[in-house]
Amino acid sequence: MGSLFRSEEMALCQLFLQSEAAYACVSELGELGLVQFRDLNPDVNAFQRKFVNEVRRCDEMERKLRYLEKEIKKDGIPMLDTGESPEAPQPREMIDLEATFEKLENELREVNQNAEALKRNFLELTELKHILRKTQVFFDEMADNQNEDEQAQLLGEEGVRANQPGQNLKLGFVAGVISREKLPAFERMLWRACRGNVFLRQAMIESPLEDPTNGDQVYKSVFIIFFQGDQLKTRVKKICEGFRATLYPCPEAPADRREMAMGVMTRIEDLNTVLGQTQDHRHRVLVAAAKNLKNWFVKVRKIKAIYHTLNLFNLDVTQKCLIAECWVPLLDIETIQLALRRGTERSGSSVPPILNRMQTFENPPTYNRTNKFTKAFQALIDAYGVASYREMNPAPYTIITFPFLFAVMFGDLGHGAIMALFGLWMIRKEKGLAAQKTDNEIWNIFFGGRYIIFLMGVFSMYTGLIYNDIFSKSLNIFGSHWHLSYNKSTVWNNNYLQLSPATSDYEGTPYPFGMDPIWQVASSNKIVFQNAYKMKISIIFGVLHMIFGVIMSWHNHTYFRNRLSLLYEFIPQLLFLVVLFFYLVLLMFIKWNRYAATNAFPMTEACAPSILITFIDMVLFKNSKAPGKDCNIYMFAGQSFFQTIFVLIALACIPVMLLGKPIKIMQARKLANEEVQPITGASDAEVGGMSNGGGSHGGGGEHHDEEEMSEIFIHQGIHTIEYVLGSVSHTASYLRLWALSLAHAQLAEVLWSMVLSLGLNKEGWLGGIFLTVVFAFWAVLTVGILVLMEGLSAFLHTLRLHWVEFQSKFYMGHGYAFQPFSFDTIIENGGAVTETE
Q: How many other CB atoms sit within 10 Å of the CB of residue 829?
């Protein structure tokens, strides 16, 4: 395995494969996932490549499989997923797969068409059944209303003859079914178009009917329209057609209607039987397909990926050999050669593949090996920018620093335990959860960062113990080292009570681990005490973090043999940071060591100078006033002298960073011009290659071969100004550790005092019920606000501290990721093949 702290060494290789063995060899390389192929035909259209027909055939097979998958999901049939990945089929097996998919698709389409036709016929018969029932009711009501001795006989579309004095009326009628939501507009249109000369009766069909086209449930109504004359008949039918109403024949005689109804019921029963058999056959076909669908998808996608990769290759002049160029990790060349031999043996070829390493001046891709634990941390780094080739990789250090800085802001034993338990649950159930592939992006983010969440929770539990904070309360594990002289009522009721270590209440020895729990009682000066502590540790952690980042740049400069950057960037940068800000950290420790509230220390708290004022006076070359009459303004002997020296060193570092490197490059170019050009006539670009400070090709080395000197001076000036001003702003930026820690603790205290304490103050059985409700509300707010929202806020601030304050000291991030040809990655991405250079 390659180095954990740098990307893998890569090699550009040329691969020669016999045409017959190319498919099997590429298949083996896809299973291995360690080779990134380059496109040797960038100017050739995708539709003009050698294996475009095979890719199209794979696309067609994928289309058929997606159709089968849609039908299977529609019926809710579970698809068998064993989690195994079958090998890529041989090219000759494509014909069998195509035939199988073609047969399944045709059979399923035929079954669906037959089922749709049967359902449409069933719908028509069901509507006719309802028409016959409802119209019988209409006709019976009309018959009951006849006052004549002789009942009028209702006829079909020929009409009805009604014997009335003076004239013979001929009435016709049509009956049909219409969607219930269209009925009001349908009725208004009939009234307006026929000028009120029609009579409409309608009745609702209680149960919904299934639409055979899309399977939706539709509510409909039966209607019958009486009219007189052929002109109205034509107009009524056109209106029915416009509203997509379905008309059905309705006999005029009751006996004919009964006979038709009996026939309809018989046909409906027969149709139900046939429909059931059709659905059973369709279900059997889909169940059989569901058992193999996942494996079929994998096989087709592997075939497609292989042919897509073969399209990147070149053919030699004999058309019998395929030539490829690829990036491979140097340590895995032997493994790749073994895979190529296996592919050759599988294909039965007698010509072995040839893998030659090529010399190149191109920047190789960046490949950092990861596992399921380090993958999420590497993703955080790559989100900022992929590391330059062989540049120092911050991910291993981020595994510790990221959750720790997060925990400084999120320090609470209870909230950290919730987060750690959630992360631990995802880790314990990761196999089952990973198998439940979902498109929910939020869940995928949480699951992908399960190890980060777990570590953030564990580190937060640790800092919660240091702060002695669990849901805004303290744990009295070792017993407080304070013995208050006040009585209990004074302690609980006096909001102005302050703890002073100068009194006899303090034993004189600190609490064994973390903060003393007595500070929860001191509501008056608790925040003052904690603010001073958290503010100082924020600056301490921030300065150490930045110094570590500058030291990381030393590893980059030495690895790339960039002597100029080492001398004129790293050394002055480190000196500038140490003599100013690390000295500020030392002052904090000196103050903690030399000043206390009691006389046990060399000096009392009243004589302690302000570190902030001391630092400002140091930069301005001023002497501040002593805090007291008998106090010394300095913390140690010779402080003024050392501070002056430190500021002068820091000021001297600025012109070194600004001018040192550009002047050396200019001198080297001038010297090279004087020595080389009179002899060889070398150009400026050729001579410039001698003055790059010893940087090697590729990776994080800086190159100035073809840059103008003015550009080099401008770039160095920007870099220097950014570093000098950034050192101040970045140090202040780490105060967010204190600010968010304070905000988190105060929010937790507000939730406790304003929500949960209300339930705890109630007594009796009603108090128990009230406490249950209040606790549920408090738990929801705790998880939703303090764990999720505050956790997200602390996560983003931690991410910023790593990207801006830490990585800016050494990390270039100008590389591009290694994207190997891997079946696992392609299948995970749903068959999408990544384009490579």
A: 11
Predicted local distance difference test score (pLDDT) of residue 676: 60
Q: Give pLDDT tens digits for 555-583.
A: 999 999 999 999 999 999 999 999 999 99
Q: At 703, which amino acid appears?
A: H
Query: In the structure, what pLDDT confidence band is assigned to residue 257 with cuts at 50, 70 and 90?
Result: confident
d(CA 26, CA 32): 10
Please classify residue 363 by burial: count the beta carbons closer than 10 Å to its beta carbon, then call 0-12 exposed, 13-18 middle and 19+ buried.
Answer: middle
Predicted TM-score (pTM) of the model is 0.81
- What does the angle CA 746 – CA 750 – CA 751 come to, to the nearest 5 degrees? 120
Question: What band does 206 get if pLDDT is binned at 50, 70 and 90?
Answer: confident
- Residues linked to residue 218 through DSSP beta bridges, in sequence order: 209
Cα separation, 775 vs 765, in Å, equals: 15
Closest CA to 239 of 281, 283, 182: 182
pLDDT of 480 higher than 70 = yes
Longest dimension (CA), the chain: 136
Contact 549, 398 (CB under 8 A): no
The residue that leads in pLDDT, 437 or 376, is 376
Q: Which two tokens stand for residue 650?
A: 């820091």
Whole-number Å distance between alpha carbons of 188 and 179: 15
**DSSP assignment letter at 469:** -
Structure tokens at 814: 């100008």
CA distances from 35 to 88, 351, 755 (A): 17, 21, 59
**CA 251, CA 256: separation in Å to the nearest integer?**
6
225 forms beta bridges with 174, 200
CATH architecture of 120-143+170-276: 2-Layer Sandwich (3.30)
Amino acid in the structure at residue 214: N
Q: What is the DSSP letter of 392?
A: B
What's the CA gap between 439 and 437, in Å, rounded?
7
- Other beta carbons within 10 angstroms of residue 295's beta carbon come to 15
How much of the chain exceeds pLDDT 90, in percent?
Answer: 52
The CB-side HSE value for 238 (13 A sphere, CA atoms) comes to: 9
- Per-residue pLDDT, averaged over 348-365, amounts to 90
Reduce the DSSP state of residue 452 to 3 states and report it.
helix
CA dist 297 and 179 (Å) reads 42
Q: Where are the domains of the chain?
A: 120-143+170-276, 373-477+513-677+699-809
Could you tell me whether strands 603-604 and 595-596 are parallel, antiparallel, or unpaired per DSSP bridges?
Answer: parallel
Q: Rounded to an integer, what distance in angstroms lies between the CA atom of residue 409 and that of residue 793?
A: 10
**Strand 36-37 with 220-227, pairing:** unpaired
